[in-house]
From TrEMBL:
<dbReference type="GO" id="GO:0004139">
    <property type="term" value="F:deoxyribose-phosphate aldolase activity"/>
</dbReference>
<dbReference type="InterPro" id="IPR013785">
    <property type="entry name" value="Aldolase_TIM"/>
</dbReference>
<dbReference type="InterPro" id="IPR011343">
    <property type="entry name" value="DeoC"/>
</dbReference>
<dbReference type="Pfam" id="PF01791">
    <property type="entry name" value="DeoC"/>
</dbReference>
<dbReference type="GO" id="GO:0016052">
    <property type="term" value="P:carbohydrate catabolic process"/>
</dbReference>
<protein>
    <recommendedName>
        <fullName>Deoxyribose-phosphate aldolase</fullName>
        <ecNumber>4.1.2.4</ecNumber>
    </recommendedName>
</protein>
<keyword id="KW-0456">Lyase</keyword>
<dbReference type="InterPro" id="IPR002915">
    <property type="entry name" value="DeoC/FbaB/LacD_aldolase"/>
</dbReference>
<comment type="similarity">
    <text>Belongs to the DeoC/FbaB aldolase family. DeoC type 2 subfamily.</text>
</comment>
<dbReference type="GO" id="GO:0009264">
    <property type="term" value="P:deoxyribonucleotide catabolic process"/>
</dbReference>
<dbReference type="GO" id="GO:0005737">
    <property type="term" value="C:cytoplasm"/>
</dbReference>
<comment type="pathway">
    <text>Carbohydrate degradation; 2-deoxy-D-ribose 1-phosphate degradation; D-glyceraldehyde 3-phosphate and acetaldehyde from 2-deoxy-alpha-D-ribose 1-phosphate: step 2/2.</text>
</comment>
<keyword id="KW-0704">Schiff base</keyword>
Amino acid sequence: MPPTPAAATSQGPAWDFSDVTHSDASLRRFLHGLPGVDQVGADARAASLGTRSIKTTAKAYALDLAIRMVDLTTLEGQDTHGKVRALAAKAMRPDPADPTCPATAAVCVYPDMVATAKDVLGDSGVNVAAVATAFPSGRAALDIKLADTRDAVEAGADEIDMVIDRGAFLSGRYLQVFEEIVAVKEACARPDGQSAHLKVIFETGELQTYDNVRRVSWLGMMAGAHFIKTSTGKVQPAATLPVTMVMLQAVRDFREATGQMVGVKPAGGIRTSKDAIKYLVVVNEVAGPDWLDPDWFRFGASTLLNELLMQRTKMTTGRYSGPDYFTLD
């Protein structure tokens, strides 16, 4: 049964999926009724799209677009306030020697570093994203996950990157995962009536099949995710081109069914400008040009930015700058 329209709110999905989300059985029937993914075909198409050659002005545009799509990330136990301040400054001015270089989309940090990042970024337009819900494992009680989310939002987070309970999903407890995403989205609400955007991380490297990736993509979108995200970056494999392609197919089909756009964020393992451009080609060819915007596609990365900056400098000056020309993140 197709979804029915409902009034959009900041607290929940803008489409009514209550007819398929009232029980595990009904949700399982819906998700397992989605078309299966031909793994061989998906791998072959992703590989084919990855061979496209982008040159000259198109490449220059792609490099700037990729920079604007970066969620510049530090998620280490050794993070310090000084490191986060430096990262936030770099997000605003990735290449201090070139004022034409665009800023990144966001800085992604642990919740206890949100206030520090926000203090530096201010109203620059660069968002603060915070990982929450017992990142990266997701192994905590729901009340702890919700408190984690509320703390980050109160500290000033513009975006929340939550992790799903992969154990629950793989065990077929789809309704539990759905209800947890809905609850976390409610915890993203601010006193001003606005809401931090919610990115839902699947950890696709643990989901075993492309069919599971398609199912969890629909599950996240039905629960109200603003973005669906491949990985935490802590599990291998992290983002891959075929998995991202399956997620892009899902957001495309979801918009066709509901009229709603949902963003996609591959994270982890994307390190070169060549790889980033491959992803942009796949976005354009699979989801369409509407997704070629930082509001709808992001890269979760740390080392990628410097590589994009080196390639950009090469195109603008004709000289290739080594990695030590830019700050290490």
